[in-house]
Amino acid sequence: MTTLSGASVVITGASSGIGRAAALAFADLGARVVLAARRADVLEEVARDCERRGGQAVAVETDVTDPEAVEALAQAAMEAFGGIDIWVNNAGVGAIGAYQDVPLAMHRQVVEVNLMGAMHGAHAVLPIFLRQRRGTIINTVSIGAWAPTPFAAAYTASKFGLRGFAASLRQELEDFQDIHVCGVFPAVVDTPGLTHGANLSGRRINPGAYLYAPETVADAIVGVALQPRDEVPVGWPSRAAQRSYGLAPKVTEHLIGRVVRGALSRADVGPMIEGAVMRTVPDGTLPSGGWRQQKGVPDAHRINKIALTAAGAAVCLGALAWASSRRPR
């Protein structure tokens, strides 16, 4: 696509975090967005924000674990805008804790939302894309699809599965050059994810200070909509995890496990939280989770730019010093 003005875009998990940021980013470019999530009241608020930015918006209360609800979402998008150009499978949840300490029903729900929710979305929209002979599915995956994380077993399983599902689907659709199945793989992002996720570890989870803004991931999603690519890392940690796990999986697993176990052992004791895994919660309605503001740190993307600028300046100064030392007296 050369422009997103007038494009019809469906986004699941659009009530907060990356989904809400993506909805606003598409609206800024004049897209017509269909917003899906479980919290109808929050979706209406997002729809109003999108319309204030120049886009058209429709809110459809949807639980992505229900295939009939997702089929109804696709039908609502067709009725509202006459077609679907882009479908963003973004809804996601997580549960932190030792595998045996997390109820099996909660593990199942994480997989149902993260993996089956995306599969339901693809199943609903693919017949439409095949009739149109064009369309793009974009899955919000995770660094967790390249870096298996302890104490988040179901989340890791769902993201590894989502990556494999997308790869399989791409092979099936090779004869349809204008139908794309893409994925974005963010590093750690400042969203309400920890508010919405379950935490049964008994520790207070601190995501650290190196956090990407949800708007950075939203920009990547928009970029993939304009120029489809199979797998797009967002942030150098995600790219590093991809290469590290591909080259040395055992070493990567050992290092990640050591880091995560060490961080949990040092963390303060905290309450057991069920979050929004099994049912909705009123908290966490913005794109940002507020962690960067709380810690007083900039977006990791900006930190990268500052570091690159400083490194470039150091190289230039070093080169000038070397040149001066070589100049004849």
UniProtKB/TrEMBL annotation:
InterPro entries in the record, alphabetically? KR_dom, NAD(P)-bd_dom_sf, Sc_DH/Rdtase_CS, SDR_fam
What GO cellular-component annotations does this UniProt entry give?
A: membrane
Which keywords appear in this protein's UniProt record, sorted alphabetically?
Answer: Oxidoreductase
Q: Which PROSITE patterns match?
A: ADH_SHORT
Ketoreductase domain residues: 7-179
- On whether Transmembrane is a keyword of this UniProt record, the answer is no
**What Pfam families would the database entry show?**
adh_short (PF00106)
**Gene Ontology MF terms in the entry:** oxidoreductase activity
- Please list which residues make up the signal peptide: none
The UniProt family comment states: Belongs to the short-chain dehydrogenases/reductases (SDR) family.
Q: Which NCBIfam families match?
A: PRK06139.1
Question: Which PANTHER family has this protein been placed in?
Answer: DEHYDROGENASE/REDUCTASE SDR FAMILY MEMBER 7B, DEHYDROGENASE_REDUCTASE SDR FAMILY MEMBER 7B
Protein name per UniProt: Putative oxidoreductase
